[in-house]
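Operator note (shift B, R.M.): manual run for NETI motif-containing protein requested after the automated queue skipped it. Running by hand, logging everything below so the morning shift can see what happened. Input copied straight from the record, untouched. If output looks odd, do not overwrite the archive copy; leave it for review.
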Amino acid sequence: MKKETVWFEVEENETITDCMERMGKQGFQVAGRREEPLFAEVDGKPVPIRQIILLKGIKEVN
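Run finished. Output pasted below as returned.
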């Protein structure tokens, strides 16, 4: 069997649990997590404004 891998971004208006439920409805299981800072430029300097949380989903594909 082959495994399909997709990264899901936790949206600003949802919790991690909400994202995991969304993944489950599409047949994916959580296999990893990654966080990345999101920056905005203020007065010519990068300023962190929030963390982007990504969940790695996998599912078996025939």
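Quick read of the result: The mean pLDDT is 95. DSSP finds one helix and three strands in the chain.
Leaving this for review. - R.M.
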